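Hey, resending since the last one bounced:
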Amino acid sequence: MKQILLAALVCGTLAGCAASPPETSAQQADDATCTAQADATYEAQNSNLLARTGQNGLYFPATPDKVFDSQRLGALSARDNQIQACEQNGNTPNVNGVAVVAPHIVQSP
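The C-alpha cells again:
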C-alpha cells in the first residue's frame, strides 16, 4: 500500500514537470537586458548594503544582523520583481504598471 501511494505521489509530482520549449535568442537577449537593468538599479539603490563588510578583530564587529538581512532580502526581492515585470512587459519602461509613451510633439492642423 505504501509503495502504491509513493508511486502515485512521484507520478503526480513529475506530471507537472512538462518540458517547456527553449527560449529564443530574442527572449534570451530581453532577459539579459532586464537583468542588467535590475542589477544596475539594485547597485545604485543599495550601495550602502553592498559596501558593508565584517570587521574582524573588534569586540562587537559590524557584521550583518537580522535588520541587515531583512533589508538585503527586501532589496533582492525588489530586484527580482523588477526583472519579472520587465520580462512580462516586453522590456518597455513602465510607471505604476502602465507603459511609458514616447514623447512626441502634437501639432495643430
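Strands lie at 94-95, 98-99.

Sorry for the duplicate.
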